[in-house]
Amino acid sequence: MNNTLNKKTPAELVKNFVSDNKVILMFVVLSIVCILISGANVSYVAGEVFSRFGRNTCLVLALIIPCMAGLGMNFGIVVGAIAAQISIFWIVHWGFVGVPGFLLCVAMSTPLALLFGWLTGMLFNKTKGSEMVAGLVLGFFAAGLYRLFTLYIMGGVIPYDDPNLLDRGFGLRNAFDLTGNLKYSVDDITFLTTASVLGVVYLLYTLVVYLHGKKFGEGVDTKKFVMQLIAGAVVVVFGIVGKMIPFVATKLGKNRVILADAVMLLAVGLLVYAVVLFIKNRPAKGTPAFNKVLKFAVLAVILFVTNMIPGVNKVYRSVRLPAMTFAVIAFFAAFNDWLVNTRLGQNMRTVGQNRSVATSAGIDVDKTRIIATCISTVLAAWGQLIFLQNLGTFNTVQQQDNVGLYSVAAILVGGANVQKATNKQAVIGVILFHTLFVVAPLAATELVGDSAISEYIRMFFSYGVIAVSLAMHASKKGGKKAKAA
Amino acid sequence: MTKDKIKKAIDAIGLPRLIVFCFFMAIVITAAVNDIDVASYFSSTLKYFGMWGILVLAMLPSIKCGIGPNFGVSLGIVCGLLGTLLAIQFNIAPAVEGILPGFGPWASMFFAIILSAVLSWLVGIAYGKLLNMVKGSEMTVTTYVGYSAIYLMCIVWFRAPFNSGEIIWPLGGVGVRNSVALETSFGWLLNDFLGFNIGPVFIPTGIILAVLLVSGFVFLYFRSKTGIAITAAGSNPTFARASGIDVDKMRVKGIALSTVLGAIGIIIYNQGFGYLQAYTAPLAMGFICVASILIGGATTTKATIMNVLIGTFLYQGLIIFTPPVSNHLLAGTDISDTMRQIIQNGVILYALAQTKGGD
Description:
The complex is a heterodimer of chains A (485) and B (359). Chain A is mainly alpha-helical and 485 residues long. Helices cover 75% and strands 2% of the residues of chain A.
């Protein structure tokens, strides 16, 4: 791939880049135009986009695995969101708050999501070839059942007496205010606590891998294991000790990290990583390994420099990031990456590429598809919990309605298509889609003097992006088929 | 032996149709037993049957030509809305009323129908060409094209340069109102035309005649040479191609006809409703139409006029009879919209699951 690219002229390179990224470029241009028209404050836009990024990305990352397994865009993540919402009713009823409440929500919603995902997977197996429309209709159908459950069965059929849940004798309240129980329960975890938690998780993981390797007599690298233990321990200790050092505690011990600090931290981290790589491998000049070191170093310098520019620094200073939420997003992305390389992930990929080949290779196609759907549904349930703890309020009956639409539109904006979606596309897509979401209404207000139109513009974009992207993909596929025939 | 026979009978009728029919009968009987005014609800069922009939009929050509239920019927619907608004804008009804008293509303309605039929035919042809590019994913694409068309038109309605006082907002002065009254154009025209009472039941003759007339026209169309070619292209494209039929062209014709029926359907619907609702009102209509024809016994690949008529009647009957009954039984609750959501989408899901998959 690289070799063929190198031989091309710059003009061709640009042309290729444009045609490969046309959806992304279109949205970048649109966003810039909207920002220019609206004259919006960049700090405000950046703050909004980052907060929406933290809220939505997990849900979008839930779409990647079913896509790999050939199920297309899983509009059925709506049922995962419903599982999350049901678990919140229990938590509110029992009166759990904060992190324990959130963890209990996760624990309650997971089995529900697994059950829903299994049923969804069975439906998808019955509707092969039209999973997307089936997922969409399933979302509406499930929303109907959920409405029956929340408005009539709770308190109606199931006797229930809790003023926190019911407000007119039967049927749940129209909206739940999560302030005081779940709101910001994850967002408010400090960077230092996050570091300690991640360190402990890493230590446990390395221990499990080491013991597993030893038990089955696979080659274990004791030296590497010790190094990993030390690295994990350093992170844990940093998290604990950091709270006692005033400078670190004021920067990283608060419930949000200021973006400017995060950028500096990232730059230092990259630089340290580059130096470690260089010392460890001592690559000769010009080799790919050397270029890698150089790339990290340059990136670090660029981050430093941007932070020094007063205008940019002002924007950086105004954005506050939730540490743990970003760690969860990274975990979701890492999980997707990890799964691809497992045996199960490889099976999913085979099933996604060609079902008959997969069958003849001895893969249980239907089962693999059900597992993919289950994973996606569980991730969606957790993603919805992250979403709701950030939003802090939820509309009992309708909250899940647009989950599928916005998530799918976002990942498609990032350049994904029905057959291939990656973490990178999800991240880019969320940023672009939500930038437009924030600035389009502002631009519309500026242009026509009425912000009511912005809702239509948003919805038109969301549906339009999906329609265009599906049509483009389907026509490509149709063209191939016609050529083959 | 008998078990087999029962199973065969159920298969022949179709499980969802059976369930919905039994549910409908149960509700009607419950209503009758509980002294609910069945006759007046039956009258409304007839009226709503007429209002929805042609919209549901729009599903027929698209299923017959092999595209499947047209979730994107909203393309036709917005054309119909535009035609109606233009008829009001140009003051057709009052102008003609001045020359030929009594014919104003008719002229207005036919103006709207003809204008939007032409418009939607053109839109339908473009839409059909798009759908020919996306063979195999038609249902997904139609759904999203339909939705985005509605929101695109929302933007248009919001700033469209109409200046008739009946269309624009009373105070703002720009853009289309949420609901435009059709009182001065053709509201309730067909509902009241030749209407009569059989005992307590009011028969809206005009609107039922309109449905039967258009159904008859579609029936005849599918008996014509083109119609047969469309059916052939839909049921067996390979065979049709071998016998010299241009399959892609037939699909375009089918979907264009479907779009035109959608446009006419919304005009008939609006006259029965008395108001025109622009903006997001048509969002749910596509799904209701699809569910109706499926309840009538159609599948995603086969449909008849009888499926349309039976399905529309059952669906509308269910929607009209459920609220009073649920209100009576569960004192003060209206469970009907939730039931509608579950039944409507459940029926569509069932039909999707019955269709043989892509491999």
